[in-house]
Amino acid sequence: MPLPADTDTTSPKYLRDKYAIVGVGETTYTRGSGRTTRALGTWAVRNAIADAGLKPSDIDGMLSYQSGDSTFSTFIAGDLGIRLNFYMDVFGGGSSTEALVGLAIGAMEAGMCKAVVIFRAMNGFSQVRIGGTGARAVAPVSGDMLHGRAYGWQSAGQMFAPSFMRHMHDYGTRPEQVAAVKAIHSEHASNNPKAYYKERLTVEDVLASRIICKPLHLLDCCVETDNGTAIVVTSADRARDCKHHPVLIRGVVGRCNKPRLDMHYQHGPISTVAGRYAREILWPNAGVGPEDVDITGSYDAFTFTTMLQLEDYGFCKKGEGGDYVSNGTIRLGGRRPNNTSGGHLCEGYTHGVNMVVENVRQLRHDVDDSCPIGPDGKRQHTYDYRQGGCRQVKNCEVSANLGWANPGTGSAMVMRRG
């Protein structure tokens, strides 16, 4: 059927709810997987396709990202018997997931394919670690490292610490406020059977752990794991024939930068992150605002990254992030829970995919927690958030995922229950 004559296909409104995430999949979160990233990627993609109720032959597009590791899409596709009409493998980390969802939409909108799998496979503990250890320890110093290492910026924590310290200086943010992010995410992970760390921690536990890079304590930092993760994106029309309740994509913004990226601190304020600019795209594209969001997935490479993003995307006023993350708002049962799987701090580190996976399940109302399975085969959520219990957010309708690569780059996505 042709579009009405007055349809503006250049408007973000045209794409709202036109595409959906129909399948999510992951491997176990381990340390020492004993598998190649090819095996992990194939495992996760197969699970995501099955979750959608599709066959490998139904997939004709594939996107992946890596940061000196992983496996190319064509190998994963070949192992699963998938012939691709479109594929692309890109370099990138934490800001990739939401950006690639946007690229998948663009590829389908251009008629290049009809269903796209996005995956990330990484042996993030046993092989290529994010800091200067593991396989990276013997890598030649080149590119941006020639600048960063001269200042002692080898790990992510070292590179991001100036933004964290400046926020504390400018706004009086206290370490115990931000430590609440870890404590709350650990509560969520205690209700997640697949989380790597399930132990509930306190703010005092975080502050008592050793300093890694001021102001970061050990427990302010994410857990390194080996894993594969994947999501399936297709049209909303096709989603209606898939296995689960459709989760519609309202809007995306991908790899939005501060005015200068390589040395973002030269274009202040240092404690402002890319979300300050990305929100000018995200909320108009999605047609909603922060006040409409029921659940967030704010990238938690560190406790501070969660706080800075929630603040700069407008969930609270600038300078009030410390209070926002420590006053109960982001806890299960609070106004707007964050990272209900435990996120990168507790479930596993996936460069952002697992937080999208979790929010998809939240919007389906079928989070895989410890609640009992009913006679109809569906989980009977109790909304009892004590340890070992439920983590499903009641009446969850709209989610926001906030991806982070570094203070100067970010991506984001808003989804809703169809």
TrEMBL record:
Domain of life of the native organism: Bacteria
Cross-referenced InterPro entries: Thiolase, Thiolase-like, Thiolase_C_2
GO molecular function annotation: acetyl-CoA C-acyltransferase activity
Domain Thiolase C-terminal: 283-368
Pfam families: Thiolase_C_1
Name of the featured protein: Thiolase
Taxonomic classification: Bacteria, Pseudomonadati, Pseudomonadota, Alphaproteobacteria, Hyphomicrobiales
